[in-house]
Design goal:
alpha+beta; 16% helix; single chain
Length: 227
């Protein structure tokens, strides 16, 4: 993917907003690049004497990674540089458990915005800070840190309630294919896919099976989608 440049984004600063408190801060220096990791999960369904069939099982959450630079040595207006941790601590606090959900606490939900690179493009509407690595690389003679690099990774946050309200109801378990291995029963297969062995009749009807106890090895079954 093409990476954004400062020319395209003008002088706008990357802004990080705490959605729980509605407070925000801008980074000191914009990142020179960021990476976007988006993936799906596929599983191999084994078949007898032939190559396995790929079965789509899930969409994974997006990850956005970048490196941020913080410097109080060159940017000091007084000639006496400040402790750079006054800036890095802002990011570190986003890793702390600060919001009570009722079922336990969690770190804050965040929103990223940077000029036109907001949630209409690469940035999801909500993210969390998954990982943070801070490296202090310059100190004063008295050991005061005045320059640092922060490697940060934001992980997409999906609000299940909002997602269900905004999308039509879908099957909880999508249809799949399964190749028998021998010594199995339809109730056992129903338990394996749906954790509900009593729904074995749905598999029997989908595959025109009259005797659910006679399942030879090597036959491919259609596992229907269910709620």
């Amino acid at each position: 993917m093409a990476l954004p440049s400062l020319r395209n984004l003008g002088l706008d600063k990357l802004r990080i907003t705490n959605l729980d408190t509605r407070k925000h801060f801008d980074v000191m220096f914009n990142p020179t690049s960021y990476s976007l990791d988006d993936s799906n999960t596929w599983e191999q369904q084994k078949r007898v004497r032939v190559k396995p069939e790929l079965q789509f099982t899930a969409q994974n959450l997006k990850k956005i990674s970048m490196e941020l630079f913080v410097d109080t040595y060159e940017t000091s207006m007084t000639g006496r540089p400040d402790d750079v941790r006054e800036h890095t601590d802002k990011m570190a606090k986003l890793m702390e458990v600060s919001f009570d959900t009722g079922d336990g606490g969690r770190p804050p939900l965040l929103a990223l915005s940077w000029g036109k690179a907001n949630h209409t493009s690469d940035f999801p509407p909500k993210v969390v800070l998954e990982s943070l690595k801070t490296e202090y690389i310059l100190f004063t003679r008295k050991g005061l840190p005045v320059r640092a690099k922060m490697s940060v990774t934001f992980l997409e946050f999906v609000d299940l309630d909002s997602e269900q309200k905004g999308k039509p109801r879908q099957k909880s378990f999508p249809w799949q294919r399964y190749t028998t291995t021998g010594g199995e029963s339809l109730s056992g297969i129903a338990a394996r896919f749906w954790r509900q062995p009593t729904r074995w009749r749905l598999i029997a009807e989908a595959n025109n099976i009259d005797n659910p106890r006679l399942l030879p090895a090597g036959i491919t079954l259609r596992i229907p989608a269910v709620n």
